């Protein structure tokens, strides 16, 4: 006998993964309007956040922080370089490695965008304490899923 109504685990609205996905999509839309003034996309903004914390990272290091592969990250970096926000340099001991640095234009955006997290956070309707708690829970969930999935899911589906 199948479950019906709100207790049905197969309902879309009962899926934690979908709730997280839909919330991430909503965040992307909220940021899109604010970032358009700076001619940036949300993924480009995430790259800048990483570089504002630490410059001179390799493409692999940035990708690791953002959970992006180089095939996705490289075009983002090329667009940021073309727009004058970052520069690439081969200044590591291994000349095959490219390090990514902010330009003055990229650095100057940090102060202009300091208000974005609180602006978008305020759009959630949640208090600062609620947002901090949610962030902690999401980080824990992400870390547990990464640790348990290990790249390939090993769940057996019966039926």
Automatic annotation (TrEMBL):
The keyword Ribosomal protein does not apply. InterPro entries: HTH_MarR-typ (IPR000835), MarR/SlyA-like (IPR039422), Transc_reg_Sar_Rot_HTH (IPR055166), WH-like_DNA-bd_sf (IPR036388), WH_DNA-bd_sf (IPR036390). It is found in: Cytoplasm. GO terms for cellular component: cytoplasm. Keywords: Cytoplasm, DNA-binding, Transcription, Transcription regulation. Its main location: cytoplasm. The keyword Oxidoreductase does not apply. This is MarR family transcriptional regulator.
């Amino acid at each position: 006998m199948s479950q019906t109504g709100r207790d049905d685990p197969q309902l879309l609205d009962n899926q934690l993964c979908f709730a997280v996905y839909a919330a991430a999509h909503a965040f992307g839309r909220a940021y899109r309007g604010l970032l358009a003034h700076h001619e940036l996309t949300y993924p480009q903004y995430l790259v800048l956040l990483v570089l504002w914390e630490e410059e001179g990272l390799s493409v692999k290091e940035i990708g690791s922080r953002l959970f992006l592969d180089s095939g996705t990250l490289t075009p983002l970096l090329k667009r940021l370089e073309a727009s004058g926000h970052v520069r690439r340099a081969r200044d590591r001991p291994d000349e095959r490695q490219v390090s990514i640095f902010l330009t003055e234009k990229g650095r100057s955006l940090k102060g202009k965008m300091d208000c974005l997290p609180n602006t978008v956070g305020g759009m959630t309707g949640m208090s600062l304490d609620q947002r901090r708690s949610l962030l902690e829970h999401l980080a824990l969930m992400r870390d547990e899923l990464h640790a348990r999935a290990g790249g390939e899911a090993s769940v057996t589906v019966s039926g």
